[in-house]
Design brief:
The protein has a two-stranded antiparallel ribbon with strand order 1-2. Helix content is about 65%, strand content about 10%. It contains four helices and two strands, in the order ααααββ. It has one domain. By secondary structure, it is mostly helical. Helix 2 packs antiparallel against helix 3 and helix 2 packs parallel to helix 4. It is rod-shaped and about 95 Å long.
């Protein structure tokens, strides 16, 4: 892709790296979580659980921050910036997919308390839905053209200026008025 600014290319590569590393961690630790119910290999399982709790916390907090940023812009009847929209889509997808994967894997392993699993997973699903909803709503809002200059009134006014010898120069000026 040809980017106008090189920093955008670096940012997009960073986002792709975060998503790829999250998928690698999830796929690596998923088998250890299924072994936890049999009581074997608790050290690896503890690392997996702490890693997943950390990843869920980061994606949850990031999703809340993204929702607040987009909600603030939308409350002012403005289109959120490209950065807020991007984080909304990313954190929305991460929270929904992560929550669905957690609930599916945990419920499929035959957990004793399915209500607890739903209680842990559904808030992240709601945060992801909120992020995606706000990002879609913000994307649908029309862009404001920052270079457009709206002229409400054009006034012809007398003009008096002084040259370097302090002699007056008379003329007509055009005053553009906006409000």
């Amino acid at each position: 892709m040809n980017y106008l600014y090189p920093k955008m290319a670096i940012k997009n590569q960073y986002i792709k790296g975060v998503i790829l590393s999250t998928l690698i961690v999830a796929l690596t630790f998923q088998p250890q979580l299924s072994e936890a119910s049999s009581g074997e290999n608790w050290g690896t399982t503890l690392v997996a659980v702490v890693g997943l709790i950390t990843a869920a916390s980061v994606s949850g907090v990031g999703g809340i921050v993204s929702a607040v940023g987009m909600g603030t812009a939308l409350e002012k009847d403005e289109r959120p910036s490209k950065g807020w929209l991007t984080t909304g889509y990313i954190f929305g997808a991460l929270n929904i997919l992560g929550s669905a994967a957690f609930m599916t894997a945990t419920l499929a392993s035959g957990v004793d308390n399915p209500g607890l699993v739903l209680g842990i997973g559904m808030p992240f699903m709601a945060i992801g839905g909120l992020d995606l909803g706000l990002a879609i709503w913000g994307t649908k809002k029309p862009k404001k053209n920052p270079t457009a200059f709206q002229i409400n009134k054009a006034l012809i006014t007398p003009f008096v200026a002084f040259d370097h010898q302090d002699k007056p120069a008379y003329g007509i000026g055009l005053r553009l008025v906006t409000y």
